[in-house]
Design a protein that fits this description.
alpha/beta, nine-stranded mixed sheet, five-stranded parallel sheet
């Protein structure tokens, strides 16, 4: 990764877990911003064996360090038993700061990550945001290979992306014994790509994979625990209409979705690029919220009659409905969902993102080029300017 890249992630100055998918730059950020920290890399075989045999070695090492020196434990999920020692250190050495990274929360949940509740907050490192890449960002490139730093900074991004999911299957799923049937899970990942950006019907996915519904539910939980995907719920506050109940599902990165989504002569680019663009906006909104000092959460809005707004961002000082269209041309029909949402929630800001190059206003709704919107989406700044356009 280029050392000149400035990330929006900020140091909390306290104990914290730093989660994030592999390749999003957790270790790089820590090494660049905390070069004097005592670093324990559990991906290194010798280090892993040492601490597996003697978890108490962590306290011995800490006792030999100045209390002012930060300890970083990389990939803590590889050895959850270390949490007991970390807990002890946070009690005995309150001035000591400990940072723990992880690319999976599954083993930590089993071990009881709540053990450190109140002693370590949870933060997330997201894929690149457009504003972090600046002039190097383009929507078309992001839709092709995504925004994972490991991929975007590679000399061969397409080849790196194609091997990315296999890395997860080998390093996370297989090595940690999460599944017995890797082949079935690989087929499931492909099948789940058809649900990206859509209402999630687990029964349909199970039927397509010829697996039990309970198995499919477990697989989706694994995807989320491995930070490969996420779900967003329908926005139902003060709802006056009958709304759907199923959540929407997204892979965490547009490139990962494109890599997993099968394509052939019968698959039009629109069928794939539309969900990919929606996912690209979703991952940016999560990054904007996660890095910023706000309490915003991401939802969508859809009535049972099919009227929909792709995203609703809701928090103390933010209420915004966003529709995403993978089209360079607009017509009034594309604004139906936002118009209905605005009638239901007149206090909300709304906008439509599209693939054109001009900022427009149609039916009093700002229509913003998607690349312009994403490049101007910066944590701690409003999603939209007072006039309703990109800030």
């Amino acid at each position: 990764m280029k050392s000149s890249r400035t990330r929006f992630f900020k140091d909390t100055k306290q104990n914290f877990f730093l989660f994030g998918p592999r390749g999003t730059g957790k270790s790089m950020w820590l090494k660049q911003n905390l070069p004097e920290a005592y670093y324990i890399d559990l991906l290194a075989p010798d280090t892993f064996r040492l601490y597996t045999a003697h978890p108490e070695r962590l306290k011995q090492a800490a006792d030999a360090l100045p209390r002012s020196r930060t300890i970083i434990i990389d990939e803590i999920q590889k050895l959850p038993d270390l949490l007991d020692v970390v807990h002890l250190l946070t009690e005995e050495q309150k001035e000591r700061r400990i940072i723990m990274t992880g690319s999976s929360s599954r083993k930590l949940k089993r071990a009881g990550v709540d053990l450190l509740a109140g002693r370590a907050i949870v933060k997330t490192m997201h894929p690149f945001m457009a504003a972090e890449l600046g002039d190097d960002f383009s929507v078309s490139k992001a839709l092709s290979t995504g925004m994972i730093p490991l991929v975007t900074e590679s000399f061969t991004p397409r080849e790196t992306l194609d091997s990315y999911v296999m890395l997860y299957l080998k390093e996370e799923v297989k090595s940690e014994g999460l599944l017995r049937n890797i082949g079935a899970f690989s087929r499931f990942l492909e099948s789940a790509s058809f649900s990206h950006g859509s209402l999630l019907n687990v029964s349909d996915v199970a039927r397509d994979c010829q697996i039990k519904i309970k198995t499919a539910q477990g697989y989706f939980s694994i995807i989320e625990d491995l930070l490969l995907g996420f779900r967003i719920s329908v926005f139902s506050k003060r709802a006056k209409r009958h709304l759907v109940s199923h959540p929407k599902f997204f892979y965490f990165d547009a490139g990962v979705f494109k890599s997993l989504r099968p394509s052939g002569p019968l698959d039009s680019p629109q069928e794939i690029d539309g969900p990919a663009l929606e996912g690209l906006v979703a991952q940016h909104l999560l990054g904007w919220s996660g890095y910023g000092k706000n309490d915003c959460k991401l939802y969508f809005w859809r009535t049972k009659s099919g009227v929909e707004v792709d995203f609703v961002v809701y928090g103390k000082d933010t209420f915004c409905g966003i529709e995403v269209k993978n089209s360079a041309r607009l017509n009034s029909k594309m604004l139906k969902g936002l118009t209905s949402f605005k009638k239901e929630y007149p206090e909300a800001d709304v906008c439509l993102l599209y693939r054109g190059k001009e900022e427009l206003v149609i039916k009093n709704i700002p229509c913003i080029p998607c690349d312009m919107f994403l490049k101007n989406l910066i944590p701690d700044k409003p999603i939209l300017s007072p006039d309703g356009f990109a800030t």
